[in-house]
């Protein structure tokens, strides 16, 4: 009986740790560890064309975070390569979270969030093959 109790306790502890430490379903750029929070997805091919570009930019607000959503909508092509370029390269840039779509899809969406008291300035470029 003692072995069963220990096994159940260990299993429960492992399950709780896994639930707490598992990453969220959205893909996030490594925030706070690099000077710039750039991200690159996929492979840029020779025949790829620029399908979508956006430049979300917001000023900071004292002791608050600011955020922006970038959504390409339905593109007339398939995405092969995505660049998310943080224009703040002084460790004060924001984080971009991939919320839907992406490479091998015809749409992509990001949620971009600044650090506390800082602004955000990103350039999002989506490359792919048109149909």
TrEMBL record:
Keyword Signal among record annotations: yes
Secretion signal, residue range per the UniProt entry: 1-28
Keyword terms: Signal
Pfam families: MBF2
Designated name of the protein: Salivary secreted peptide
């Amino acid at each position: 009986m003692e072995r069963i109790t220990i096994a159940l306790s260990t299993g429960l502890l492992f399950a709780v740790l896994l639930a707490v430490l598992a990453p969220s379903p959205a893909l996030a750029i490594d925030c706070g560890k690099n000077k710039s929070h750039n991200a690159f997805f996929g492979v840029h091919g020779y025949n790829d064309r620029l399908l979508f570009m956006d430049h979300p930019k917001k000023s900071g607000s004292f002791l608050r975070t600011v955020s922006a959503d970038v959504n390409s909508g339905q593109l007339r092509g398939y995405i092969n390569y995505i660049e998310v370029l943080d224009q703040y390269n002084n460790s004060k840039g924001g984080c971009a979270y991939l919320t839907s779509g992406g490479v091998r899809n015809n749409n992509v969406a990001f949620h971009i969030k600044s650090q506390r008291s800082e602004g955000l300035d990103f350039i999002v470029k989506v490359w792919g093959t048109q149909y």
